[in-house]
Amino acid sequence: MDAAFTAEQREIRRTLREALTRHAGPAAAAARTPQGYDTELWARLAGQLGLPGLALPARYGGADCTLTELALACEETGRVLLPSPLLATAGLVAPLICALGTPEQREGLLPRIADASLTCALAVPGSLAEALALTGDNTAGAWAGGGRAGGIQARRAGDGWTLYGEAAQVLDGHSARLLLVAAHTGGFPRSRPLLFLVGADAPGMTRTRLTALDETRPQARIELRDSPARLLGEDGADVAGALRTTGSGAAVLLAAEAVGSAAGSLSRTVEYVGTREQFGRAIGSFQAVKHRLADLYVHVEAARSAAYYAAWDPAAGALALAQCLEALRTVAGETIQLHGGIGFTWEHDAHLYFKRAAADELLFGPVHRLRDTAAERAGLFASARGEAAGRQ
Q1: Which fold has domain 121-239?
Q2: Which H/E stretch holds residue 178?
Q3: For position 190, what pLDDT does the model report?
Q4: Domain 7-87+104-117 in CATH: superfamily?
Q5: Percent of the chain with pLDDT over 90
Q6: Does position 390 have pLDDT exceeding 80, yes or no?
Q7: Beta bridge partners of 219
Q8: Which of 46, 99, 51 is nearest to 71 (CA)?
Q9: What distance in Å separates the CA atoms of residue 300 and residue 308, rounded to the nearest whole number?
């Protein structure tokens, strides 16, 4: 195994970092726009770098790269906390369309995702982390709601379907032009979750933007009242399996993004302590501050190693995500401390990094459940249970 990045991968990272340094404005300002992100910058990143289609096949207009290249891109967007549809569109919805969509659906949707003319969101009534099998088994379908009226229900209407219900927290749900909605069908005795395509202008749909903890990752509540929908793929598709595979890839992207955020937060802190003076000298020259920064650097580099390994082996995505979220939380907390009084103000970006750490752990964690699920799948607890049973 050659763990070194190729020249093309290094160039993708360098080019994207330069573009973001030159064109990305303050993250909070872009997040507060009606769309929740800078549409001009998104179009530029799509046109010049092919960012949303980076991991899509060339026959659909993509760059035919791998998850590793997309993870490197996420590391750079995480560094500046870039509000963008990248995660929801390219990290969650596009892989599901590739895995489950009919040939006509793939040919009709993926080229529009690749050229950034179509943004998407995954609407799940329950826990997104459980739907992606990051914090438990998703085969039971509890994440899509349950019973006769829980979650979102799908019913046949002629040759199509209608959906009724709501999803409380949908990433980029207020601005996405296409929603991929998880809904129950088959009635109460044979209920099973399927995925449906719903256009942004579908009748009976209401989208309400929420006040999110992390404003750089907008969320919305989606309400559907007999809204027309199209089934993604075929009726007998393995939805749970496709979501599980997509979840492994999404965990890799989120881990890389968290590493970028931690590195960006640490970089800002190092710059600040080098200029902030106390007792006639820069506070970065004090030994206690140096020790704290050195510890943070170790956290970031260890997390980066975990994220890069997961990009090579997505099966380790959940464990890498746990380590990277923990590193980001630690670094972001220390960033606020080392910035002193200004670290607590809304005008400074330090609080945005801390909120990203907290919000991502609420959406895709928590860390201990990510590790617990990974340990269960690896069978680490099986021998202990067997020994306990033998003693009884």
Answers
A1: Butyryl-CoA Dehydrogenase, subunit A; domain 2 (2.40.110)
A2: strand 178-185
A3: 66
A4: Acyl-CoA dehydrogenase/oxidase, N-terminal domain (1.10.540.10)
A5: 78
A6: no
A7: 171
A8: 51
A9: 12
